[in-house]
Each structure stands twice: as C-alpha cells, then as structure tokens.
C-alpha cells in the first residue's frame, strides 16, 4: 500500500473494523461520546487513509489538498449522521442527505484489471464518492439492520455485525471486547476480595 508512514501515536491509527468503507471512514473520528479523537488532522492523514482503505490509485499516494480534507471531514460527519438516523429509524438531517448525495453523484473510482486497481481523474474526490455511494447502498439496503454501535461506553465505532448469531457487541474483541472482559474480571475479583 502507498501513502505516508503510520502515525507516531498509535491512537491515530485507523481502525478498519467496520466491515464497510463508509463505517471505516466514519471511524476516522474516534471517541465521539467523550473527547473526540481526530484521526484526520492533516491532508497527509487522509491520503494515508485512502491508501490503507485500498481506495488509492496505484500510481502512488493520493494528492490531498486542505480543501479535500475539509470536504472529507464534512462528508464523514454527514455519513455518520445519516447512518445513525437510519439505525434509529429517524428521518436523517436534510443537510446530511444533501451532502452525501452530492458526493455520491461525483465520478467514483473505476475498477481496473491489471496492476492498477483503480483509476480516476480526481483520485481524492473519486475515493470520497466511492465511500458516499457505499453509505447510500448500506442505508438503502438489507444490511442496515446489522449495523451496530460498539457497546463500550468509551467507543463510538459503528460496525456491520457479520456474526452468525447476530449478537456481536463490540467493534472488535481485540479492542473493546477484551477491555470489557478485563473490567468484568477485575470487578468480580474486587467483589470476591471484599467478602
């Protein structure tokens, strides 16, 4: 994959655990219920996300401008609002719908056979259009009822529950699931020691 090197701060690493590009893109703003964690602090980070999400043309890193970054952040929040409203069975905010539709209407990445996976005249906008279209297809499709929010109160990641029983509670067992198990274990240990 191409792009800038991984961030020095591991908290700024991108979690690709949503199961859909639009959910992974929404996760570029973490800890929404607490002090938000911006994983797209600059254009280079957005270029890195495109590369890690495999939405970059193979000619090298996607050139991302400050304007592309600003549009990407606005799209991200509109996607998040749209998906959350759909999950709750509410009408989405009209501005969110307008922003997602406008982005989805742009030319998206064109798949290619051969060494180049994608092609696009404007790679950054095309990658965002691809993400926006994914959100439209998710919200309008049969998989919406499988989208969940991680049950860890400190996490706000959305994910597609692809478990057989559809009872997945955590964005990832490696992240929040293990933290929950440790908390339960410690709580039981404390309760046992006070008896």
How are the secondary structure elements laid out?
Blueprint: H1 21-26, E1 29-30, E2 37-38, H2 43-52, H3 66-88, H4 94-104, E3 110-111, E4 118-119, H5 123-140, E5 147-149, E6 158-160, H6 173-194
Spell out the key features of this protein.
single chain, 195 residues, mainly alpha, Jann2411-like fold, two-stranded antiparallel ribbon, two-stranded antiparallel sheet, 6 helices, 46% helix
At CATH level 2, the architecture is Orthogonal Bundle
Largest sheet: 2 strands, antiparallel
Number of domains: 1
What gross morphology would you assign? Answer: globular
Q: How much of the residues is beta strand, in percent? A: 5-15%
Order of helices and strands: HEEHHHEEHEEH
**Tell me, what is the CATH class?**
Mainly Alpha
Plain-language structure description:
The protein is mostly helical. The protein has a single domain (10-194), classed as Jann2411-like fold (Orthogonal Bundle), CATH 1.10.3300. Helices cover 46% and strands 7% of the residues. The chain has a two-stranded antiparallel sheet with strand order 1-2. A hairpin with a 6-residue loop joins strand 1 and strand 2. It is globular, with a radius of gyration of 18 Å. The protein starts with 20 loop residues before the first helix and ends with a helix.
């Amino acid at each position: 994959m191409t792009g800038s090197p991984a961030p020095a701060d591991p908290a700024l690493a991108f979690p690709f655990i949503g199961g859909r590009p639009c959910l992974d893109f929404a996760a570029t703003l973490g800890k929404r219920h607490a002090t938000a964690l911006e994983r797209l602090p600059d254009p280079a980070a957005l270029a890195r996300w495109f590369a890690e999400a495999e939405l970059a043309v193979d000619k090298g890193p996607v050139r991302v401008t400050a304007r592309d970054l600003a549009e990407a952040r606005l799209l991200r929040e509109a996607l998040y609002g749209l998906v959350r409203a759909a999950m709750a069975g509410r009408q989405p905010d009209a501005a969110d719908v307008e922003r997602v539709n406008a982005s989805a209407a742009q030319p998206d990445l064109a798949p290619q056979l051969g060494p180049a996976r994608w092609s696009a005249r404007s790679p950054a906008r095309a990658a965002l259009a691809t993400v926006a279209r994914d959100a439209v297809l998710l919200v309008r499709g049969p998989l919406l009822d499988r989208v969940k929010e991680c049950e860890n109160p400190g996490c706000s990641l959305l994910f597609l529950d692809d478990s057989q029983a559809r009872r997945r509670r955590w964005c990832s067992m490696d992240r929040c699931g293990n933290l929950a198990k440790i908390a339960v274990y410690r709580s039981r240990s404390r309760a046992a020691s006070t008896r």
